[in-house]
Each structure stands twice: as structure tokens, then as C-alpha cells.
Amino acid sequence: xxxxxxxxxxxxxxxxxxxxxxxxxxxxxxxxxxxxxxxxxxxxxxxxxxxxxxxxxxxxxxxxxxxxxxxxxxxxxxxxxxxxxxxxxxxxxxxxxxxxxxxxxxxxxxxxxxxxxxxxxxxxxxxxxxxxxxxxxxxxxxxxxxxxxxxxxxxxxxxxxxxxxxxxxxxxxxxxxxxxxxxxxxxxxxxxxxxxxxxxxxxxxxxxxxxxxxxxxxxxxxxxxxxxxxxxxxxxxxxxxxxxxxxxxxxxxxxxxxxxxxxxxxxxxxxxxxxxxxxxxxxxxxxxxxxxxxxxxxxxxxxxxxxxxx
Length: 310
Prior knowledge:
With 310 residues, this protein is α/β, with parallel strands linked by helices. It is built from 13 helices and 6 strands. The protein folds into 2 domains: 8-115 and 183-302, Rossmann fold (3-Layer(aba) Sandwich); 123-180, Histone, subunit A (Orthogonal Bundle). It has a 6-stranded parallel sheet with strand order 3-2-4-1-5-6, with helices on both faces. Helix content is 53%, strand content 8%.
């Protein structure tokens, strides 16, 4: 495994694999600052269900791009890239080293490759696609997309908002967003990715989901429902966070905690599979073990990588 080059280091892993704990330890050992790459820790109030770093962890190590938006906001990838690049530049200007950490591969891909140069949204066409989503369902829209471009359909990762946007662009232009090219990234990146054996990863998911419910996840989902109607279609971005609908169902007594936990673990396994596929195919990352990933990063930080500003 070669050491890190003079690029911005990125640490990624599937959900519940332990990337936040490894990042925190590395940050403390090498005096780093963490740039989050998570689509839901950007929201204020979503703390338990997103496994957001605790106040003590944030006091011990500087974290960036947490609590950036209200749950009623629609935080998108373009905003993320702008704010992540600004945070990275600010850390570098102070002579410190940023470590990008997260499992939202869509955000990481945009950092690495640049933002899609797609045309602005047409709200009329988007409204028609949203109505079709409500009537026909997500699977039907994805099947339509897969018939024309299977790669683009897979890239949606079953995200309703992204599927609506891609369908809107296709119906206006005859091309999906991936055909429009990308802007030039501000920085270069060195990606380190790791995973764990399936049974070990699932056991970690089960423990984490149980801990989240014990910490009051159902009440947090009830708070989210008080801010944003969970019945709205297409589903608001904050309600797309893994497990919140199940946690809400516990609060309303539609599901027992045991039933909800089993569903969240199943969804987590499915999400982890999509993450691993994206890490290999989109991020071009070799999947290491946790000790290998930690050693690779330690070797790089120990060598004192020179991170030039872009």
C-alpha cells in the first residue's frame, strides 16, 4: 500500500463500519480537522439517527459541515461541494491538515470529479415528474431510466430526489445528467476506504441501531415530524435519512421497537452494499481492512504530506 500523496486525504467506509471512530483517533494523534461528507449530519436536530459526533468529540477535534441547515431546507450536492471546498481551503490557510470523512459517496464523487454541468431546473417539468413519482412509484421511474441508461439508474442509489431531477433533465434534453460533464475540482484527493466482513458489519449495525433507539431515536423522529410532514411527496430530504420513518413508526406505535430495528438493520445492509459498489466503481477505491486503512493514513500523516491549495 503506497503512502498518501500530496492530496487531500479522504476516509470512507460503509455505514456502521467505524470510520468516525478511526477518523477521531487519527485527528487526535495528528492534530487534524475533520470535514464531514454526510448528507444528513448537515441538518440541525438530526443527531441520534445520523450518529452525529457528540459535543465532547466536537470539542476534542474541530469538525466542519455539521449542523449547516434546518430540516426544512433542501441541502443539495452543489451546496455541499461549495461549502466543503471553502472549509478545506480555510483549514489549509491556517496551516492545518483537513481529513474528509463520510459515507455519502454521491458527495465524495462530486468532490473528486466536480459538479455536473446540467441545465437549471424547469419547475414545471419537475412538478410533473413528482406527480408521476407519487402515482407510479420510485421503481417505475428507475425502470424507465434503466431501459435507456442502466449506469445512470444505478447511480441514483434509489434516491427519489435525484431520480426526479435526472428524469426531469432527460425529458427536456434527451440526456441524463451524467452526459453533461463536470466542473473542475478545486483540489485533488487521495481516497482510503475500508470495510469489515459481512457478519461483523451486520452485528455492528444491530448494536448501533439498538443504541440509537435506547438514546431516544423515536422522540427525535417525532420532533422531525413536528417540523416537516412525513407524508409529503416527494419525500423531503431530511426524511430520506436512513431509519427515521421506522423510528417515527415506533413513536406512533405502528411498529414495535424490535420490528423497527430489524427493518433498519435490513435497510442498512442494503445501503452498505450500494456504498461498497460506489466506493469501488465511482471513487476507484481499494477496499482495505480497518487496520490497513488506519496504517495507510498514519503512514501518510507521519510523512508530513504537503497539501497545496487549489
